[in-house]
Amino acid sequence: MPSDIEIAQKAKMRKISDIAKERLGIHEDDLENYGRYKAKVSFSYLDKLKNNKDGKLILVTAISPTPAG
User: Is residue 1 part of a domain?
Assistant: First the structure.
């Protein structure tokens, strides 16, 4: 079984703006980009969703590894 690092090294990263547009219909103007692969959705985009039916909230977070673990 490959290690976590081997799996990560084989992964092909996609630009977050492409994923947001193609999969979620979020325009690039509604994203606050942090490089090519990270972004936050703007609060103004949430205002556009007020009249939509409530959906599921998914929070994604991560931390960067450090020498201390």
Answer: no
pLDDT tens digit string along 11-51? 899 999 999 999 989 999 999 999 999 999 998 898 888 88
Residue burial 48-58, b: 16+ Cβ < 10 Å; e: rest: eeeeeeeeeee
User: Around 9, how many Cα atoms within 13 Å sit in the side-chain half-sphere?
Assistant: 5
pTM of the model: 0.62
Total domains present in the chain:
1
Number of Cβ within 10 Å of residue 16's Cβ equals 19
Interacting residues of 39 by C-beta distance below 8 A, sequence separation 6+: 16, 17, 20, 31, 32, 33
